[in-house]
Amino acid sequence: MRKIQIMTETIFDRHDISHIVWDWNGTLLDDNHANLAAVNAICASFGRAPLELDHWRSLFRRPLIPCYEELLGQSFEDGEWERIELLYDSGYRKHLHTCELADGVPDVLHTWAGTGGTQSLLSMAAHDHLVPTVAERGLNSHFTRIDGRRFTTQHDSKAEHLVHHLDNQGIDPAKVVLIGDIDDDAHAAREAGAQSLLVTSGLMSRERLEATGSPVVETPVDAVAALRGL
After folding, report:
1. 86: exposed, middle or buried (Cβ count in 10 Å: 0-12, 13-18, 19+)
2. What is the pLDDT of residues 106-121, one digit of tens each?
């Protein structure tokens, strides 16, 4: 069978892939500016100078708590992480209405469905926040299932969420590619027995994405084109 290789040494057989699990923030939704505004609201509250996007893309990672402790230069006392979560949520929501779908969305979802493939949506955004956000953009019908973060995990990773997401649909992970924008998406796919494709449109630089060993492309449209062998 023909193999595909994209910008890394990792190779996988695209012919085995029948289902895409899409990430939302930074992948299907172009929301980097809202994310940065929310982070800078936190910085302002803690007396830290605002960040540029490239700097945040060099720092951002999961687990989130040590990431923000590095950003703010301090360890958090009881209640401070909860305060940060509220600040972030408030700042992000102020800008959410200005966030557009990524270039080529929803057309790329139609393209994948036209190949006979199925697709679902899994995000680490809170489930109760994610569902209406997706619905408002008229995308529900494209997905076999939509899941946000429904439970907490010890390592603050998408991995356990992905396992539940696939189990609840009865989908074989070996037939799945997770398309996302951060290194945790690659980690989650490996842990679940799936493949991953990473896009540079979100919160991590190309160099950090390539370090995962997963294929890296620019956009969701490029990702589906790669899966189709174009």
Report:
1. exposed
2. 999 999 999 999 999 9
